[in-house]
Amino acid sequence: MHGLALSTDLSTDPGSEQPYRYTRRPLVEPDWTRLPGWRDVTVVEWESAQWQRVHCVKNVRQLRAVYGDLLPAEFYTDVERDQQERATMSMLLPPQMLNTMVPDRVPDGPSMYADPVRRYMLPVFSDRATEWSSHPNASRDSLHEQEMWKVEGLTHRYPTKVLAELLPTCPQYCGHCTRMDLVGNSTPVIDKLKFSLKPVNRLDAMIDYLRANPGVRDVVVSGGDVANMPWRNLESFIARLLEIENIRDIRLASKALMGLPQHWLQDDVVDGMTRLAGVANARGVHIAIHTHVNHANSVTPLVAKATKTMLDTGIRDVRNQGVLLRGVNDSSTTLLDLCFALLDEAAIMPYYFYMCDMIPNSEHWRLSVAQAQQLQHAIMGYLPGFATPRMVCDVPYVGKRWVNQLEAYDQVRGISYWTKNYRTGIESTDPEALSRRYEYYDPILTLPAEGQQWWRRHGGDLEAATAAGHEQAAASRDAARRQAADPVSV
Ligand code: SF4
């Protein structure tokens, strides 16, 4: 009896003294009929991908039709002003995603303003930082992916892997999208880049490049979101990848697994994925889906069902690449709650958390490298090692680096310095590519007063100097690329 009493006494349970306490929580699909606009929506309608796509919210008028008087008038005005003056992405919210935001999702839950999913999927003007809404060195294509296109939409940055941007649209648009230069509709402040080649020609050129470059073994099939590609076209592209001997890993990027799980539950998608997984397994190739979930509230029973359905087709894995965002998931508790919801309840492997990239108007979302390092430290030891996500910084002209890999760090000015151990696709003749130090910038609002003052004095100059330097570097890389006389390069 004594031993039993001790084992159930919380005061002696090691878990009770820990900074994080694990508690298993069942997933919940919030009741959509609580919202005025969806009072009469049936389960059959809700679980239909077609119904979800048709009823996406694309503007404030439609948002008001869903929430009505549950939201104050100033909230709608705040959203409208953001769309006009700051938003780099247009509004596109499937009901599934909107339904994971308050109000009244849970008793005593946060207000719409404080809701973590709302904070990044439905930005408001009053969220944005005022003095520094953009870092002076922010840029539209902050990772310089287009400079590294080998054919239009095919980025060859790392030695053995490529990113194939098949299409420029998604079923949902995230406020912080790193590919805001290309993805989605133009907004009042951002005129989007358009692909110039016809889709069929771009995809053919990608396949030709991969056939001609056997050093590439891994293809991230992305966009946009592959859930917006007609299934027949996507299956055909992946089937062609599976015929290329050197391709061993195929990763399909789809936030829709969370934002529109109904898509991945459709019969034609499930049947098609089963065919692809069968071929992949026979050839020893790994197909995985990489999704993008930033908060545990987004992990609902339908997300778990879609994931299980995809795993049952025979694909290798479903993994999550989240983004660290202030006010969304910038605490170890929120991150661990998310990772356990993914791992325990939905069979999704926590994998990466990226730092938010230096795109325009993203300063209020971004964290400093030091904060990311602290979060990495704080989540260690709770999850299994294989499911402990790495915090990574995507350093311009370098690529993903674990946040503890930096060479040097000026924490007053918020400048970290990084090196790399491979040449990107545009540096074959650059003698300094492996010895140069590359910079990444913390959000200025996180810096001490001295650092903020320095940026007030130097921000404009540095921005101009950096832009000029990048133009010069890009010109010399272009010349090098032309000299390389690659027959399939554009
Ligand atoms: S799903 Fe991905 S590509 Fe699409 S808007 Fe969101 S972050 Fe951008």
Write the layout of secondary structure elements.
Layout: H1 2-8, H2 43-46, H3 49-54, H4 60-67, H5 73-85, H6 95-98, H7 116-121, E1 149-151, E2 154-155, E3 161-165, H8 199-212, E4 218-222, H9 231-242, E5 249-253, H10 256-259, H11 261-264, H12 267-283, E6 286-291, H13 301-312, E7 317-324, H14 332-346, E8 349-355, H15 369-379, E9 390-395, E10 399-402, E11 408-410, E12 415-418, E13 438-441, H16 449-483
Parallel strand pairs: 3-4, 4-5, 5-6, 6-7, 7-8, 8-9
Antiparallel strand pairs: 1-2, 2-3, 9-10, 11-12, 12-13
Helix pairs in contact: 9-12, 14-15
Bound molecules: iron/sulfur cluster.
Gist?
The chain has two domains: 30-127, no CATH class; 146-402, Aldolase class I (TIM Barrel, Alpha-Beta Barrel), CATH 3.20.20.
Tell me about this structure.
Strand 9 and strand 10 form a beta hairpin. The protein is globular and about 60 Å long. The chain has two domains: 30-127, no CATH class; 146-402, Alpha-Beta Barrel (TIM Barrel), CATH 3.20.20. It is of the alpha/beta class and 490 residues long. Residues 1-11 and 476-490 have low confidence and may be disordered. The chain is 35% helix and 13% strand. The protein is built from 16 helices and 13 strands. Bound molecules: iron/sulfur cluster.
